[in-house]
Write a structure and sequence with these properties.
Helix content is 43%, strand content 2%. With 218 residues, it is mainly α. It folds into two domains: 31-71 and 141-216, no CATH class; 78-129, no CATH class. It has a two-stranded antiparallel sheet. Strand 1 (122-123) and strand 2 (128-129) form a beta hairpin. The longest helix has 26 residues, at 2-27. The radius of gyration is 24 Å and the shape is extended.
């Protein structure tokens, strides 16, 4: 009897270990190719960078100045969304309806932008920022790209050497939801550095990118 119980317990323990091991592997940064997490607000790069052609640096202004490209704060969004409260299509539909019904058009506020207004402490019924004691709670975007802590990566070095964002992040301007394109392995970094040094990347000819361990690992 006792022995049977022990076997059952061991089997359960082994099962838990396998599940844990898988979890750890899945969560290990650096091997999440294709990762495209659901974001708390449906922000579309396809719309903003593709259709509206807003420059990447307008929102990711750290990219040529620091290690991190950075995620824009709500203030940056509010430069436009203080005035633009919904997609043009929805606004046009309301305008046409109002014209037919011979009444002034109602303001249209999209559900997604309501989330932004809550975060920015903006009152969309008055179209103004709320007075002081109200403060928004920043949108908690889910990180897509993530290197392990023991790797040193610096945006500034790459961006100032004219390595395009797309070379590393793919065609973000076509993405409804950001997807991790490269696998972010050491091989990915080192192979590009080698290709640069061998003149295999035409637009980066003449540049030199070190492949010594210490530039990427302190
Ligand atoms: C209007 C502002 C805006 C513009 C313009 C913009 N982005 Fe973004 N970007 C964001 C926001 C907000 C997020 C966080 C939410 C998300 O991941 O979609 C983000 C996330 C990202 C991420 C994922 C970051 C992570 O979590 O690892 C990448 C990569 C990125 N942007 C690259 C670009 C590139 C390349 C361009 C130009 C083609 C661009 N972005 C233009 C606002 C912008
Ligand atoms: C040489 C490859 C490379 C280039 C070029 C590059 N990135 Fe990145 N980017 C990365 C890597 C790698 C990470 C993850 C960094 C980390 O985890 O520390 C990242 C992370 C990000 C993030 C997440 C937040 C942050 O700052 O870490 C954003 C946003 C981003 N990149 C936007 C951009 C934009 C916009 C450009 C162009 C102006 C750009 N990147 C150019 C490789 C690149
Ligand atoms: C330079 C101006 C500008 C900036 C900056 C900007 N947007 Fe927009 N955004 C627009 C315009 C214009 C539209 C409507 C475009 C259309 O319908 O064709 C829009 C549409 C949207 C929509 C879709 C609304 C709907 O329901 O259809 C969302 C969500 C959104 N933006 C979120 C954001 C967030 C979050 C930020 C900041 C990270 C941001 N925007 C920054 C101009 C901007
Ligand atoms: C698309 C090609 C490309 C990819 C991918 C790439 N790099 Fe680079 N990297 C370069 C170029 C080009 C330079 C040289 C920049 C210059 O001329 O200053 C460079 C320079 C560097 C430097 C500075 C080296 C020095 O001599 O001080 C570091 C550190 C670095 N990269 C780390 C990384 C890491 C970490 C990754 C992967 C996460 C990566 N790079 C991915 C192209 C790339
Ligand atoms: C251009 C940047 C770059 C250079 C140069 C580089 N590495 Fe790495 N290394 C990385 C990145 C990014 C990772 C994390 C991704 C991964 O685990 O594949 C990594 C991971 C590692 C790991 C952990 C491997 C694992 O499976 O978790 C070791 C060990 C390592 N590197 C050793 C070295 C040694 C030794 C050298 C010199 C011969 C070196 N690296 C040169 C970028 C670099």
């Amino acid at each position: 009897m006792k022995q049977n119980l022990l076997i059952v317990l061991l089997v359960i323990l082994a099962f838990i270990l396998v599940v844990l091991a898988q979890q750890i592997k899945i969560n290990l940064p650096g091997i999440n190719q294709g990762y495209a997490p659901q974001q708390p607000l449906a922000f579309s790069h396809r719309l903003h960078s593709g259709d509206l052609q807003i420059d990447c640096m307008y929102c990711h202004s750290g990219a040529d100045k620091s290690r991190h490209a950075g995620i824009p704060s709500e203030n940056v969004c509010m430069n436009c969304h203080r005035f633009v409260t919904a997609g043009w299509d929805k606004i046009r539909i309301e305008d046409e309806r109002a014209q037919k019904e011979k009444r002034p058009p109602q303001p249209v506020v999209s559900d997604e932008l309501k989330k932004l207004y809550r975060a920015a402490a903006f009152d969309e019924t008055q179209m103004k920022f709320k007075d002081k004691p109200y403060s928004g709670k920043p949108i908690e975007w889910t990180r897509v790209y993530n290197l392990p802590d023991f790797v040193f990566f610096d945006h500034r070095r790459h961006v100032n050497a004219d390595v395009s964002c797309q070379k590393c992040h793919g065609a973000v301007e076509t993405m409804e939801k950001v997807t991790q394109v490269p696998d972010l392995t050491m091989g990915w970094c080192v192979n590009c550095h080698r290709d640069v040094n061998n003149g295999k990347i035409p637009e980066l000819k003449g540049k030199y990118a070190s492949i010594s361990c210490t530039v990427c690992h302190y």
